[in-house]
Amino acid sequence: MIILGIDPGYAITGYAVIKVDLKTKIITLVDYGCIFSSPKDIFSKRLLIVFNGIKEVIRKYKPDKIAIEHIYFAKNAKTAIKVSEARGVITLAAAIEKIDIFGFTPLQVKQALTGYGRATKGQIQQMVKNILKLKDIPRPDDAADALAIALTCAQTNQVLR
Does residue 136 carry a catalytic annotation? Predict the structure, then answer.
Protein backbone atom coordinates (compact mmCIF):
# COMPACT_ATOMS: atom_id res chain seq x y z
CA MET A 1 0.00 0.00 0.00
CA ILE A 2 1.27 3.46 -0.93
CA ILE A 3 0.47 6.41 1.35
CA LEU A 4 1.05 10.04 0.41
CA GLY A 5 1.43 12.37 3.38
CA ILE A 6 0.95 16.10 2.89
CA ASP A 7 1.79 19.10 5.06
CA PRO A 8 -0.32 21.79 3.36
CA GLY A 9 0.83 25.31 2.72
CA TYR A 10 0.67 27.95 0.01
CA ALA A 11 4.35 28.92 0.18
CA ILE A 12 5.70 25.43 0.91
CA THR A 13 3.73 22.19 0.71
CA GLY A 14 5.58 19.19 2.05
CA TYR A 15 4.89 15.75 0.63
CA ALA A 16 6.09 12.27 1.50
CA VAL A 17 5.46 8.88 -0.02
CA ILE A 18 5.79 5.69 1.99
CA LYS A 19 5.14 2.07 1.12
CA VAL A 20 3.58 -0.31 3.64
CA ASP A 21 4.06 -4.03 3.11
CA LEU A 22 0.80 -5.41 4.46
CA LYS A 23 2.26 -8.89 5.04
CA THR A 24 5.48 -7.97 6.83
CA LYS A 25 4.20 -4.62 8.18
CA ILE A 26 7.45 -3.01 7.09
CA ILE A 27 7.29 0.65 6.14
CA THR A 28 9.76 2.00 3.61
CA LEU A 29 10.42 5.50 2.38
CA VAL A 30 9.73 6.04 -1.31
CA ASP A 31 10.24 9.79 -1.72
CA TYR A 32 9.76 13.14 -0.05
CA GLY A 33 10.10 16.76 -0.95
CA CYS A 34 8.36 20.12 -1.20
CA ILE A 35 6.35 22.14 -3.65
CA PHE A 36 7.34 25.81 -3.54
CA SER A 37 5.49 28.87 -4.74
CA SER A 38 6.89 32.37 -4.97
CA PRO A 39 5.59 35.26 -2.88
CA LYS A 40 6.04 37.35 -6.04
CA ASP A 41 3.15 35.45 -7.68
CA ILE A 42 -0.49 36.35 -7.16
CA PHE A 43 -2.24 34.06 -4.70
CA SER A 44 -4.34 32.25 -7.30
CA LYS A 45 -1.17 31.30 -9.20
CA ARG A 46 0.36 30.00 -5.96
CA LEU A 47 -2.68 27.78 -5.42
CA LEU A 48 -2.40 26.51 -8.99
CA ILE A 49 1.26 25.63 -8.39
CA VAL A 50 0.28 23.63 -5.28
CA PHE A 51 -2.57 21.91 -7.15
CA ASN A 52 -0.42 20.98 -10.14
CA GLY A 53 2.47 19.88 -7.94
CA ILE A 54 0.30 17.55 -5.86
CA LYS A 55 -1.43 16.26 -8.98
CA GLU A 56 1.99 15.39 -10.43
CA VAL A 57 3.04 13.57 -7.23
CA ILE A 58 -0.25 11.64 -7.20
CA ARG A 59 0.11 10.59 -10.82
CA LYS A 60 3.76 9.59 -10.34
CA TYR A 61 3.31 7.45 -7.22
CA LYS A 62 -0.37 6.41 -7.48
CA PRO A 63 -1.06 6.38 -3.72
CA ASP A 64 -3.80 4.23 -2.25
CA LYS A 65 -4.43 6.76 0.53
CA ILE A 66 -3.61 10.39 1.15
CA ALA A 67 -3.05 11.80 4.62
CA ILE A 68 -3.12 15.54 5.25
CA GLU A 69 -2.69 17.71 8.29
CA HIS A 70 -5.79 19.41 9.63
CA ILE A 71 -5.57 23.12 10.27
CA TYR A 72 -6.41 23.30 13.94
CA PHE A 73 -5.21 26.67 15.19
CA ALA A 74 -3.57 29.76 13.85
CA LYS A 75 -2.52 33.02 15.46
CA ASN A 76 -3.04 34.85 12.18
CA ALA A 77 -6.49 34.43 10.64
CA LYS A 78 -5.33 35.56 7.18
CA THR A 79 -2.62 32.90 7.15
CA ALA A 80 -5.05 30.23 8.36
CA ILE A 81 -7.48 31.08 5.58
CA LYS A 82 -4.77 30.94 2.92
CA VAL A 83 -3.45 27.59 4.21
CA SER A 84 -7.03 26.31 4.25
CA GLU A 85 -7.39 27.32 0.62
CA ALA A 86 -4.20 25.41 -0.22
CA ARG A 87 -5.60 22.43 1.68
CA GLY A 88 -8.74 22.76 -0.44
CA VAL A 89 -6.90 22.51 -3.75
CA ILE A 90 -4.95 19.53 -2.40
CA THR A 91 -8.22 17.85 -1.41
CA LEU A 92 -9.61 18.62 -4.87
CA ALA A 93 -6.59 16.97 -6.52
CA ALA A 94 -7.18 13.84 -4.40
CA ALA A 95 -10.90 13.83 -5.23
CA ILE A 96 -10.24 14.16 -8.96
CA GLU A 97 -7.97 11.10 -8.77
CA LYS A 98 -10.58 9.27 -6.63
CA ILE A 99 -8.20 8.69 -3.71
CA ASP A 100 -9.43 8.59 -0.11
CA ILE A 101 -8.04 11.44 1.98
CA PHE A 102 -7.63 11.25 5.75
CA GLY A 103 -7.02 14.26 7.99
CA PHE A 104 -4.95 14.29 11.17
CA THR A 105 -4.43 16.98 13.78
CA PRO A 106 -0.95 17.72 15.12
CA LEU A 107 -2.05 16.13 18.41
CA GLN A 108 -2.97 12.88 16.62
CA VAL A 109 0.41 12.85 14.85
CA LYS A 110 2.27 13.40 18.13
CA GLN A 111 0.32 10.67 19.90
CA ALA A 112 0.68 8.18 17.05
CA LEU A 113 4.44 8.61 16.72
CA THR A 114 5.55 9.25 20.30
CA GLY A 115 2.61 8.29 22.50
CA TYR A 116 2.74 11.80 23.95
CA GLY A 117 0.45 14.61 22.75
CA ARG A 118 2.86 17.38 23.73
CA ALA A 119 5.91 16.01 21.94
CA THR A 120 8.19 18.60 20.39
CA LYS A 121 8.83 18.96 16.68
CA GLY A 122 12.33 17.61 17.30
CA GLN A 123 10.96 14.50 19.02
CA ILE A 124 8.58 13.87 16.13
CA GLN A 125 11.38 14.28 13.60
CA GLN A 126 13.59 11.88 15.57
CA MET A 127 10.78 9.28 15.56
CA VAL A 128 10.34 9.69 11.79
CA LYS A 129 14.07 9.09 11.38
CA ASN A 130 13.98 6.04 13.66
CA ILE A 131 10.84 4.44 12.20
CA LEU A 132 12.12 4.77 8.64
CA LYS A 133 15.71 3.87 9.63
CA LEU A 134 17.09 7.03 8.05
CA LYS A 135 20.62 8.29 8.50
CA ASP A 136 19.47 11.89 9.08
CA ILE A 137 16.30 13.75 9.93
CA PRO A 138 14.56 14.66 6.65
CA ARG A 139 14.77 18.31 5.59
CA PRO A 140 13.12 20.71 5.14
CA ASP A 141 10.72 20.61 8.10
CA ASP A 142 7.68 20.61 5.79
CA ALA A 143 8.81 17.32 4.22
CA ALA A 144 9.57 15.83 7.65
CA ASP A 145 6.06 16.85 8.77
CA ALA A 146 4.57 15.18 5.69
CA LEU A 147 6.44 11.99 6.58
CA ALA A 148 5.05 12.14 10.11
CA ILE A 149 1.52 12.54 8.71
CA ALA A 150 1.98 9.58 6.32
CA LEU A 151 3.29 7.40 9.17
CA THR A 152 0.34 8.43 11.34
CA CYS A 153 -2.03 7.31 8.60
CA ALA A 154 -0.24 3.97 8.33
CA GLN A 155 -0.48 3.42 12.08
CA THR A 156 -3.96 4.71 12.78
CA ASN A 157 -6.02 3.47 9.87
CA GLN A 158 -5.47 -0.20 10.65
CA VAL A 159 -3.03 -0.57 7.77
CA LEU A 160 -0.47 -2.19 10.02
CA ARG A 161 -2.85 -4.16 12.23
Answer: no
Q: What is the pLDDT of residues 3-39, one digit of tens each?
A: 999 999 999 999 999 999 999 989 999 999 999 999 9
CA distance 157 to 161: 9
Whether 142 sits among the annotated catalytic residues: the reply is: yes
Q: Which of 56, 85, 136, 142 is catalytic?
A: 142
Domain boundaries, the chain: 2-156
Reported pTM: 0.94
Fold of 2-156: Nucleotidyltransferase; domain 5 (3.30.420)
Out of 7, 21, 100, 141, pick the active-site residue: 7
Among 146, 64, 139, 76, which residue's Cα sits nearest to residue 104? 146
Task: Report residue 136: phi and psi, to 5°.
Answer: -130, 160
Q: Where are the alpha helices (DSSP H) in the chain?
A: 43-61, 77-96, 106-114, 121-131, 141-156
Residue 85 annotated as catalytic = no
Which is catalytic among the residues 69, 85, 100, 141?
Answer: 69
